[in-house]
Amino acid sequence: MRDDVRTVRWAGDGLRLLDQTVLPGRVEHVVVRDVEALVDAIRRLVVRGAPALGVTGAFGVAVAMLQAEREGWDAAARDAAIARVREARPTAVNLAAGVDRCVPLVPKGLYAVLAEAQAVLDEDVRGNRAIGAFGADWITGRTPDRPLRILTHCNAGALATAGWGTALGVVRELHDRGRVEKVYADETRPLLQGSRLTAWELVRAGIPCLVQADGAAPGAILRGLVDVAVIGADRIAANGDTANKVGSVGVALACAAAGVPFVVAAPWSTVDLALASGDGIPIEERDTGEVLGWGGVRTAPDGAGAFNPAFDVTPARLVTALVTETGVLEVANGETPGGRAARP
Ligand code: MRU
């Protein structure tokens, strides 16, 4: 299986990002060496997906340190720049968590920060392998004994992480075990992470996939075409409420109505135990132009406004299982992240 995607890497004097805005047409990288460019890359989704944003935030501290040295900033200016990276996007808690892991090492110097950021990256890849194995074990124990028809929404693959993927890590592991018939990849309006990115990853991995409009997903589930839905997450509250790409709630509701397992696959770094419920999760609202037009051409009539939340929150009661790198919690049965004795 091909998993040679490298979303985020340190490049000696800057951060090398795979530019996800031009996939699948072109495979290009950009190297960002200043905070302005990094914040812009995060906001434009050059780099995206909660775990990849966590790694980016961690290395972003090093980017700010180098720029501060080059441009003669004082500590206050450097710290303000780090805060801008931390706040570049609000919903995925991993971005702030990645920054927060490296900030205490700033007084120790650049190499200490880079070592910690690399640890965040390495842990993510290791964790995704574990998520894949735990998720595949849980799913095979609860689904028909044949290759499965799996639905996923947005992109929670190698492109959204430091490698392998969370939801797609589970799919890759099931595929390695000969247990995937096909994957329904929701196209994921308005920025098409499903059709552009998930389908790209699945085709490269040799996993059969069907791109479908987001609006087709609930019907496919109710018609019995789907054995299990597996998605990623951007932030999970202590009670199991889960923020993920807008449209996830419709998938979860249809799964509940059809008795199909709705599985969330995410690392512990996506769990925010400080939030009792999903009510406290900040939901990013993006530019209205993303839904009022396409490819720079306006498609809605002049005078129409737009509501463009990038994420929605699936209530815990609809989350059959949460797969992390330490095992599986059956959230709908009352096993919540906050109910664990301690974060691993
Ligand atoms: O806006 P995006 O593309 O950053 O949204 C990404 C998602 O919603 C993913 O499903 C989530 O971050 C999990 S990635 C493993």
Structural class: alpha/beta
CATH-level-2 architecture of the largest domain: 3-Layer(aba) Sandwich
Give the number of DSSP strands.
16
CATH topology of the largest domain: Rossmann fold
- Number of distinct helices: 10
Into how many domains do the coordinates divide? Answer: 2
The pLDDT mean sits at 96
Rounded to the nearest angstrom, the radius of gyration is: 19 Å
The residue ranges in which pLDDT falls below 50 over 5 or more consecutive positions are none
Q: Indicate the proportion of strand residues.
A: 15-25%
Shape: globular
Tell me which oligomeric state these chains represent.
single chain
> What ligands does this structure carry?
5-S-methyl-1-O-phosphono-5-thio-D-ribulose
Question: What's the level 1 CATH class of the largest domain?
Answer: Alpha Beta
Spatial strand order of the main sheet: 6-5-4-7-10-15-16
Secondary structure: helix percent: 25-40%
Can I get a quick summary?
The chain is α/β, with parallel strands linked by helices.
Description of the molecule:
The protein has 344 residues and is an alpha/beta fold. It has two domains: 3-124, translation initiation factor eif-2b, domain 1 (Four Helix Bundle (Hemerythrin (Met), subunit A)); 126-333, Rossmann fold. It has helices at residues 35-43, 50-71, 75-86, 93-102, 110-140, 167-176, 193-205, 217-222, 248-258, 289-292, and strands at residues 8-10, 15-18, 29-32, 148-152, 180-186, 209-212, 228-231, 235-237, 242-245, 262-265, 271-272, 293-294, 297-298, 311-314, 321-324, 327-329. The strands form four sheets. The protein has a seven-stranded mixed sheet with strand order 6-5-4-7-10-15-16. A four-stranded mixed sheet has the order 11-8-9-14, covered by helices on one side. A three-stranded antiparallel sheet has the order 1-2-3. It starts with 7 loop residues before the first strand and ends in a 15-residue tail after the last strand. It binds 5-S-methyl-1-O-phosphono-5-thio-D-ribulose. 5-S-methyl-1-O-phosphono-5-thio-D-ribulose is lined by residues 45, 48-51, 92, 154, 156, 160-161, 166, 193, 232-234, 244-245, 310.
